[in-house]
Amino acid sequence: MRRIRRLLLTGALCAVANLAYAQSYPTKPIKLIVPFPPGGNVDLSARILAPELSKELGQPFFVENRAGAGGTLGLDAVAKAAPDGHTLGIASPVNHLAAPSLYPKLPYDSIRDFTPIGLIASVPMVLAVGPSSPAKSVGELLALARAKNGSMTMASAGSGSGNHIVGELFQDATGVKFVHVPYKGSALANNDLAGGHVDLHIDQLSSVLPLLQGGRLRALAVTTARRSPLLPNVPTLAESGVPDFDASTTLGLVMPGRADPELAKRLNAALRNVLQRPAVREQFARLGAEVRESTPEAYAQFIRTEIARTAKIVRDAKITLD
């Protein structure tokens, strides 16, 4: 009985200590690792959050870009940092959810080596064609593809990229096959799409919006369940005859695994407070992004579900990296 009392007392003291630490956190500047180069959607999202989280938590936030290996180098740096909440990272579908299926020697476990804090935002993707394409709708595009017996081409930002994976999901949902043409990044793919060298590309709204506005590309549909406020006249794929289609580039905030759950709750509360601010929502909206709030538990479930979903796509399509 005494031993049980001692164990209960020890557990209670640990819980009190953890809570006290979470309440006193942070004690020094916080590093926010972006696993991609400056200027992209992930980097811009981090730079929206950093000054607001700094105000919320009372310590400076430093954004550090660690690009390379499809975003896995930066996320690996997060995984190997001390789990004290002073190193955070932004996880994306490519380096977090698809990576376990794409990299046979991935240096981290996407579930075990990270503590989920919360979702940040989702950016719709757009099914776009060049201005010379005869297809004015998704239905016309699919009819044309069927008539050409699978010879039409689908660009991507590279094998295993988010664009590629959503493109495979689109083919699976419609039963129509395209010839995959991987590029080294979205910019090159969109240039060739505008020039009529490939037939379609599914890319992030933030990347294609200037090209759509300039008339260099034409949007046929967005991939999310709801229309984008930035493209109110462009239907969703579901509205275009592809039932229940819903895909986007969803970002989340993580810290190293084995972190104190109370610390995760503290950071989640700070993140959600920031995401509720009208100025922050407006900045994300200008990127074409929709703010996504969640608990750490809901984000953890999202991670597990999306890893399994992506693994099936990669396996069925036999996707390999270049």
Structure, briefly:
By secondary structure, the chain is of the alpha/beta class. It is 45% helix and 19% strand. It is globular, with a radius of gyration of 21 Å.
Topology:
Layout: H1 2-24, E1 30-34, H2 41-57, E2 61-65, H3 72-79, E3 87-91, H4 93-102, E4 114-129, H5 138-147, E5 153-156, H6 162-174, E6 179-182, H7 186-194, E7 200-204, H8 205-213, E8 218-222, E9 248-256, H9 261-275, H10 278-286, E10 290-291, H11 296-317
Helix pairs in contact: 1-9, 2-9, 4-11
CATH class category of the largest domain: Alpha Beta
Principal-axis shape equals globular
Q: How much helix, percentage-wise, in residues?
A: 40-55%
Distance between termini?
62 Å
- Write out the CATH superfamily name of the largest domain: Bordetella uptake gene, domain 1
What do these coordinates show?
This protein has 322 residues and is α/β, with parallel strands linked by helices. It has 2 domains: 2-122 and 249-317, Bordetella uptake gene, domain 1 (D-Maltodextrin-Binding Protein, domain 2), CATH 3.40.190; 124-222, Periplasmic binding protein-like II (D-Maltodextrin-Binding Protein, domain 2, 3-Layer(aba) Sandwich). Helices cover 45% and strands 19% of the residues. The longest helix is centred in the N-terminal third of the chain and has 23 residues, at 2-24. The model is unreliable at 12-17 (pLDDT under 50).
